[in-house]
Write a structure and sequence with these properties.
Oligomer: homodimer
CATH topology of the largest domain in chain A: Molybdenum Cofactor Biosythetic Enzyme, Chain A
CATH superfamily of the largest domain in chain A: MoaB/Mog-like domain
Helix content of chain A: 10-25%
Strand order of the largest sheet of chain A: 7-4-6-5-9-8
Shape of chain A: elongated
Number of helices of chain A: 7
Strand content of chain A: 25-35%
Radius of gyration of chain A: 31 Å
CATH class of the largest domain in chain A: Alpha Beta
Structural class of chain A: alpha/beta
Number of strands of chain A: 26
Largest sheet of chain A: 6 strands, mixed
């Protein structure tokens, strides 16, 4: 096995960038009704102006605005009513100076008119005359053609994760289908002689499998399709065949446990045996999460995560979350919550330290309350709302300091 | 029709509390593999200690800690090796003073031992003797029985929305199924003579339906099952039969559009015709979103939302989002992002004003950049990352002020 030194997260991410740059996701055409949460693989543009006619925002009369200039409550102007626009219908009416036509909210503003005066500001004198009591500016109460979206405008950009309101923009432009990134396919394999099926009987000395289900759920939440979930004894041949099978049809293979430098470390050996370039990260300068392995074989990404659930969750977020975002061209924007740290927190010198926290609403924002527990404690991750990173060159966090909390 | 005055949001929420208090969701038993995003309807407790044996967190030797007290690099203590613990297996070894047994990371710490000394701190003298070079404290490198979770501990509480790490806690305790709230069933009906099927040919004067798809996607994102999506002309009889049908099998019926006090306001009349108590909110002091209707009939919640997409989205978030959270006993914790407002923002006197914003990452947090556009503009909501509320008694926001951004 190659001799590998411990890398910083930054170094690991750069190596991943270098080795994983050629891993690509195909496109998939889907209906917009099921697009929320998926990520666009193509830019989408509008073929239409929205609205494609001048639209009234009020119930009122379409007019030539200049007819009302200087008009007040006591000096109205009288206008001839030459018709009324029907909702949802085109109109042939043409407004010229001295003329007006009724338009409902959302209705088409007829040709010639450049404003709509609200019904509150007019009086119907007889069936064909109104008195207008308010000076109305050109453009007032009118959404002009293309005001919302112009023909050719970009609606969705490549890498955008679709939200409900984006569905609204797409229907506004009459677009039923978009091309999104296929879901990255992933396999989760947990190793460890002590790991047992969580739903069966366990022997004294065994523990129920936590990581397989946690990591699979995290993968799915981030938009992956989990094709394999399995628990394998810590034996070279068994793990090798499991990884071999997983590599065939997945973009990402995660092996959890078995990556500590103990007597039974087989993960790295198995990855090495799958071909070039093999393991390119073996150990990461983070706490917790040191025994992390990253490799590539058969053009696929392989991650060896620590067996301790807290470490596995953190390394997953930091490396695999990053990789999946890169696969789908996602923006770098990562939501973090500024919060005031409630107590002093110590860090490990020379390592990037991850501190789990709970968030508590305060008068002006949030307090971050550090949670402590042994690194094997899954209950810790379940109580935490997020974590704070303490860089390797920073000596802990002081009480009262504002930190950025990444959500879990 | 009853005479109704415009309410503040607080008043509307109180009336909803009063009228909707008896609307309940049933429970549904589901496998934990599909539980992420669902909300627990019952508290769940652990039947086991986790771990249920003392577990080593390192590769090392199980010892009686007091044997090593005072030991240093130059003055080691010699211990008899009486065996080795196998991973994932129970052991009969009993450690007493002067004895030691090898334990791998995750393995069972034998009876009598109260600490594990790391292999880095010992030397193997011969096959049955080690020299220990480090003073080890009682409990060191051992996760004790129940350290992570104790028998009887609460794992999940009613109202908790399940995250991947909660799945981990459940598998750790061997729990395969939990009871969650059934998905609230909802119908979305859009009205308006100008609203056309977004995917068909539209006539000049019509606009493509935006709200049906946007609101349905928002409902689904919040955990509802949308059973009906339809567009209805603004006619009393048509809307009445649509609402009647929707009330049969839904908890929530949303009618979008048709709620302005224009010539074609039929939504309130239709809700009134369905029985007691009928409409109990008609108009809300918010901008945008004034023409909001809330009612109850046949024991179901009815909402009349403004037709303008921006208003509809805001009123949805504020009222329906709140109601759905209440239905599922969710915590009051609502994630908001503190951000510094980039420019002055004006508000509407006497109304709670909602300002759409984009978030931009800055050195110490976020800047909130107000977005402007006519209220019909769906493109505005698609660009926005969230919104800021300006209370009715506050005069706008000053540049440089810190605001809380609710995410969209």
């Amino acid at each position: 096995m190659k001799l590998l030194k411990v890398d910083t997260i930054q170094q690991v991410l750069e190596k991943m960038e270098y080795h994983f740059g050629d891993i690509e996701l195909k496109g998939e055409v889907i209906n917009i009704e099921v697009a929320v949460g998926r990520t666009a693989k193509e830019d989408t543009f509008s073929q239409y102006n929205i609205p494609d006619f001048n639209r009234s925002t009020v119930d009122g009369y379409a007019i030539v605005a200049s007819d009302t200039f200087g008009v007040t409550d006591s000096i109205p102007v009288f206008l001839d009513v030459i018709g009324q626009v029907e909702m949802g219908k085109s109109t042939d009416i043409v407004i010229s100076k001295g003329k007006a036509a009724y338009v409902p909210t959302g209705g088409m503003v007829p040709k010639g008119a450049d404003a709509v005066i609200m019904i509150e500001h007019i009086e119907e004198m007889d069936s064909s005359t109104i008195a207008a009591y308010s000076s109305t500016a050109p453009g007032e109460n009118v959404i002009k053609i293309g005001d919302d979206i112009s023909k050719g405008d970009q609606l969705i950009h490549k890498g955008k994760q679709i939200r409900p309101q984006d569905i609204g923009v797409l229907t506004a432009a009459g677009i039923r289908q978009i091309t999104v990134f296929e879901k990255p396919k992933a396999a989760v394999i947990s190793t460890g002689d002590e790991i047992a099926d969580p739903f069966g009987e366990i022997q004294y000395g065994e523990v129920r499998d936590i990581n397989t289900y946690t990591l699979a759920a995290m993968l799915e939440e981030m938009g992956a399709a989990v094709t394999i979930k399995s628990v394998i004894k810590d034996e070279y041949e068994l793990l090798k065949s499991a990884v071999e099978a997983a590599l065939i049809d997945n973009h990402i293979v995660i092996i959890s446990g078995g990556s500590s430098v103990g007597t039974k470390d087989v993960t790295a050996k198995v990855i090495e045996s799958m071909g070039e370039p093999g393991v390119f990260v073996h150990g990461m300068a983070v706490k917790p999460g040191k025994p992390t392995i990253v490799g590539k074989a058969m053009g696929k990404a392989l991650f060896g995560l620590p067996g301790h659930p807290v470490s596995a969750v953190i390394v997953f977020k930091v490396l695999i979350g990053h990789f999946m975002a890169r696969l789908m061209n996602k923006e770098n924007f990562k939501l973090q919550i500024p919060a005031v740290c409630s107590v002093n927190v110590h860090s490990s010198p020379g390592k990037e330290t991850f501190q789990m926290v709970e968030l508590e609403q305060t008068e002006n924002g949030y307090a971050a309350i550090p949670l402590h527990g042994k690194s094997g404690a899954i209950s810790l991750v379940s109580r935490a709302q997020g974590f704070v990173r303490i860089p390797h060159n920073k000596e802990g966090i002081s009480k009262g300091e504002t930190v950025m909390v990444e959500l879990l």
